């Protein structure tokens, strides 16, 4: 399996340390790269996300811990991956897999306060996201509002991480 550039050592160490076998790539984004994985002693396939940057890892773990504390498994009918484990040394998060409709990828989320964007940036952001989601934009706004109610402010929202 070809590993994404920059992640080779981290992935190899994770597989060795956690006795995991990576199955297939689910994608690489700005905050990390995700694979399905399996452990010999566990029956289920799960998702594992590798981060290169501490800040993105810390944000995402914080969101998953918040969701776990609040016992959130879905938001407005969209499944949310469940935190299974995390490794602070390797910047790795293990989570359940989900199928559409879902909400995922919280590496660009902020806890308890939104990003400090200017009103103009927020206006442009809303316009761009409205175009990205087309007819689903009102439903996405409701999903984002529910996350905000939980203290989770999602800045990186796209049709790949909120899927209908």
Structural descriptors:
11 strands; 26% strand; Phosphorylase Kinase, domain 1; 164 residues; alpha+beta; Protein kinase domain-containing protein; Kinase-like_dom_sf; two-stranded antiparallel ribbon; 5-stranded antiparallel β-sheet
Q: What does this 3D model show about the protein?
A:
The protein is of the alpha+beta class and about 160 residues long. It has a single domain, classed as Phosphorylase Kinase, domain 1 (2-Layer Sandwich), CATH 3.30.200.20. It contains 4 helices and 11 strands. It has helices at about 10-20, 55-70, 120-135, 135-150; strands spanning about 20-30, 35-40, 45-50, 75, 80, 85, 90-95, 100-105, 110, 150-155, 160-164. The strands form 4 sheets. It has a 5-stranded antiparallel β-sheet, with helices on both faces. Strands 4-5 form a two-stranded antiparallel sheet. InterPro entries: Kinase-like_dom_sf (IPR011009).
Order of helices and strands: HEEEHEEEEEEHHEE
Broad CATH class: Alpha Beta
SS summary, helix count: 4
Which regions are unreliable across 5 or more consecutive residues at pLDDT < 50? Answer: none
Rounded mean pLDDT is 94
Number of domains: 1
CATH architecture: 2-Layer Sandwich
How widely separated are the two ends? 30 Å
InterPro entries: Kinase-like_dom_sf (IPR011009)
Organism: Aporhodopirellula aestuarii
Protein name: Protein kinase domain-containing protein
